[in-house]
Amino acid sequence: MGPRLTIDEKRKRMMDIFHESQDVFLLKELEKIGPKQKGIVAQTVKDVVQSLVDDGMCHAEKIGSSNYFWSFPSEAAIKRRNRIADLEKEIAQVDGKIEALGSSIEKAQFGREQTDERASLMEELAEIEARWNLQQEELQQFKECDPELMNQRRKETVVAQDAANRWTDNIFIIQGWARDKFNMETSVFNKAFEIPDDLDSV
């Protein structure tokens, strides 16, 4: 028993069967020829042929109830030439992009040459940024005294106070309704619903 073949080796040997014979085969014929001539295990022939069909390297056609397979050397050469042409086109596009990026880098680096003046300016910029960050930290400490924030808090307080008074009025209305409807004393109502006796508007 010879060494185990890789899938790529099996595919190459199967293509050799097609190209050397330049014939059309049934799958059963390939399952017999593959092991005898090329050492491809019969049980793997179907998968190998299907992978070649999927990659467009081999043709498959169903005629009646049978499937026929073939691949001619001239087709493979044409496909290889087309593939080479496509790759060369991609290489040209990539070369163009590399050239454009190189030009952009050169333009971006213009004026950024490392000089004493640039180093001094960068140092000054770092100091200014550090001072700015420190001032921002100090500003946060005084944020509670910000007039705009205080004004906003006042407005929010008025809204909250109005809402609290509305709820207090609603409770008084329900107290009155319970007193009139069920002859319930206010103190009894307050005790039942845990309402303080000194409840009043804010």
TrEMBL record:
Q: The Leucine zipper with capping helix domain covers which part of the protein?
A: 149-200
State whether keyword Coiled coil applies: yes
Main localization is: nucleus
Could you state one GO biological process linked to this protein? reciprocal meiotic recombination
Q: Where is the signal peptide?
A: none
Q: Where, if anywhere, are coiled coils annotated?
A: 84-138
According to the lineage, what is the superkingdom? Eukaryota
| GO cellular component term of the entry, any | nucleus
Q: Which family does it belong to?
A: Belongs to the MND1 family.
The name on file for this protein is Meiotic nuclear division protein 1
